[in-house]
Amino acid sequence: DERERGRLASAVEQSPNPVWMLKPDGVIEFANAAVTRLYGYSPGELIGRDPSILNSGVESPAFWEEMWATVRGGRTWSGTITNRAKNGSLVAVDSTISALLDAEGRISAIIATDRDVTRERALESDLERSARERETIEAALQSSVFLEAPAGERRQFFVAGRLSYQNPLENVFLTDDQKSLPVPKSAGDSVTGGAI
Asked: Does the reported pTM lie above 0.70?
């Protein structure tokens, strides 16, 4: 039994993910080596402190109230938290926080595990930004298309409907007024002489 507890303690200490143990009042009682690697605080700087030492200010007070109400209600809470490391950088973690109950159903400790998802969140943000940029470009292309004309002139065609990339002229319609507009002499000129 003692040997098994020792193996379990060793596994927790060597886990690649941060593992925390808090007292029922929420004060940090244990932090494994992965906590130090991720956040930059030594165990001595964390033990005896409130976890709010990592608070980035990203989450609202209502977020924390809901999270603590879940845990103190004896249930497991899972979600993404943005913490602040000792060096000031933001660290996004998928966190699971559970209350350990004694034989009488009272909370004896709170266990938290974190998984660093900072890079994943940054990639998701980049993909979302790229998608928005693509939508903006596609919207602009849906309203007008510039095609190279002979001798380097640029002509603007107004598009009705979605562009076809296989044949851009497939959906091009010009009104009589648009057909009569003068064509700019260079890419920087407009029909009124200003920049396009």
From this structure: no
